[in-house]
Amino acid sequence: MKTIFSGIQPSGILTLGNYLGAMKHFVPLQDEFNCFYCIVDQHAITVPQEPAVLKENIRRLAALYLAVGLDPQKVTLFIQSEVPAHAKLGWIMLCTSYVGELERMTQFKDKSSGRGESVPGGLLAYPPLMAADILLYDTDFVPVGEDQKQHLELTRDLATRFNNRYGEIFKIPDIRVAEVGARIMSLQDGTKKMSKSDPNQGGFISMLDEPDTIVKKVKRAQTDSDNSIRFDKENKPAISNLLTIYSLCSGKPIQELETMYEGKGYGAFKTDLAEVVVETLKPIQDRFHQLFSSPELDKILTAGAEKANQAANKMLYKVEKAMGMARL
Ligand code: ATP
Ligand code: MG
User: Fold this and answer.
1) Which residue of 17, 128, 144, 170 pairs with 148 in a disulfide if CB–CB is 3.0 to 4.6 A?
2) What is the CATH number of the domain that holds 319?
3) Which one from 24, 111, 236, 270 is the annotated catalytic residue?
């Protein structure tokens, strides 16, 4: 059986972008693959986090993974920091990488811009840690949003570089990006990706937003200068993004939506879009609230960490042995 690994950071509350671009696709994969889904808290601390908020976001993310339909009997759901092999292999992958290639990563450039001398070192070391996350499990496929493509390329490069030096230790993983929805854009800026760590709350819809908040955010979403509802990514990025969200949440093809709203203004379109988003998130939110404070959630995470530790330690031992670090 082939193996899947994917991680999400508890760096905020998950957005509709995280759901449509990543999480939603995890569910059907669980029947076909050996899946490891990770709450990557060590990635989240590459930028400052408030301890109480981080703690809550870790638990929220765990509950959301299950609320969208992942079955803990089928998948391994765990917290990265509870599996120390990630940090250990992360260090080794950092030592395998070059500063030049890390500085070229667009996420590093985006997240470090405006910080002057105070760019956290962890932001630069992030992609080698991500490579470690993936390589520890003999991963075949990594389902992620489009923004992670570059990090995946680097993971493949680092794995190949390591193998060339120490022998065939790592499997070279493939990326899996959804055809539609792999890059949901900010509601306030159609040229910027939707991100859960965006300080502008209006830029994203969180998976846990109340219906009236969703209505407000959709109403205030940026539109384009003319009044027509047409998919044209280049000239009408904002409305094209809203059409993508509408289509993914309703299951209606974009062309059908264009016909439905021909001659109608943005107002009617936005009212219906908000309703479709509310309906999509409602069943997830209901399950989330049952799971969030349940002791069951802790049992699942404990069992997940145990399984992940077993698999990860095996790989780490192979790596350390190949490098001359394991004594026995
Ligand atoms: P942060 O702002 O803290 O980086 P994020 O919203 O980018 O948060 P991540 O935890 O970095 O979320 O990524 C989790 C998963 O969601 C990844 O697979 C990523 O590719 C995907 N993803 C993130 N943003 C989007 C988006 N706007 N559209 C589609 N997929 C996305
Ligand atoms: Mg991100």
Assistant:
1) 144
2) 3.40.50.620
3) 111
What SS3 class is residue 190?
A: coil
Which of 24, 88, 196, 270 is the catalytic position?
Answer: 196
For a ligand 1 pocket test, name from 18, 123, 146, 194 the mutation site with the most ligand atoms within 8 angstroms of its C-beta: 18
- pTM comes to 0.97
Q: Is 43 in the pocket of ligand 1 (CB under 6 A)?
A: no
Distance CA 19, CA 257 (A): 21
Residue 43 Cα to ligand 2 midpoint, Å, equals 9
Answer whether residue 216 is part of any domain: no
Which pLDDT tens digit goes with each residue over 10-61? Answer: 999 999 999 999 999 999 999 999 999 999 999 999 999 999 999 999 999 9
Is residue 193 part of the annotated active site? The answer reads: yes
Q: Which domain holds residue 60?
A: 3-182+295-323
Q: Which two tokens stand for residue 134?
A: 């993936």
* Nearest protein Cα to ligand 1, atom 6: 195
**Residue 78 belongs to some domain of the structure:** yes
**CA 35 to CA 31: how far, in whole Å?**
9
CA 229 to chain centre: 29
Burial 186-204 (b: 16+ CB within 10 A, else e): bbbbbeebbbbebeeeebb
Number of helices and strands (H, E) in the chain?
14, 5
